Amino acid sequence: MGLVGTLPREIGNLSFLVSLNASHNSFHGLIPPSIFNMSFLEVLALKNNSLSSSLPLDMCIHNLHRLKWLRISFNELYGEIPSSLGQCSQLEFLSLYNNNFSGFVPTEIGNLTKLQELYLGENKLTGPIPSTIGNLSNLQDLHLSSNKFSGPIPSTIGNLSNLSSLWLSSNKLNGELPFSICNLI
């Protein structure tokens, strides 16, 4: 729509909003914390803006229990991925792709058992890929490329029997491919 400016903090007053899509605009600045208090929200899409903030550490603890779709890719978000994200148990789609997130992927990500698509590529994530990713039995697309992940590929990736797309390129992974990956063929 060509919208320019900041997202107003009052946007959280739309407490019965089910879907918020402000993608492909020119919003900049912070994501108002009030957005993460919208308890009826099922879709939050802020893709392709210039938003620059971190995500609240408690983003899924008090609300967002109905959230199924979170797409805030192609922004300038930074900081760590909050472990509380693992409490957004209804998530089916999660894209934090192409931001500046750093640190480890929280092990709590393995709690998102309804997740079908996970896009964390093009960030600055480090450490090992958490083995709890193997808990995501509905996962079809897993994109972790262009980060700074190190260590071996977890053998639990072989548990992802619905996986059709796996992107691990441009990381610092080492070791052999786990034999369990053969389960995906």
CATH topology: Leucine-rich repeat, LRR (right-handed beta-alpha superhelix)
Top CATH class: Alpha Beta
Q: Sheet bearing the most strands, described?
A: 7 strands, parallel
Helix content: under 10%
What is the total domain count? 1
Number of helices: 0
Shape: globular
Q: What is the gyration radius calculated from CA atoms?
A: 16 Å
| Strand runs, count | 15
Average pLDDT taken over every residue? 94
What is the CATH H-level superfamily? Ribonuclease Inhibitor
Describe the protein.
This protein has 185 residues and is an all-beta fold. The protein has one domain (4-184): Leucine-rich repeat, LRR (right-handed beta-alpha superhelix), CATH 3.80.10. 0% of the residues lie in helices and 24% in strands. The protein has no helices and 15 strands. It has strands spanning 4-5, 19-21, 26-29, 43-45, 50-51, 69-71, 78-79, 93-95, 100-103, 117-119, 124-127, 141-143, 148-151, 165-167, 172-173. The strands form three sheets. The protein has a seven-stranded parallel sheet with strand order 2-4-6-8-10-12-14, with no helix packed on it. The protein has a five-stranded parallel sheet with strand order 7-9-11-13-15, with no helix packed on it. It is globular and about 50 Å long. The mean pLDDT is 94.
Notable features of this structure?
single chain; 185 residues; mainly beta; Leucine-rich repeat, LRR (right-handed beta-alpha superhelix); 7-stranded parallel β-sheet; 5-stranded parallel β-sheet; 15 strands
Summarize the structure.
This protein is an all-beta fold and 185 residues long. The chain is 0% helix and 24% strand.
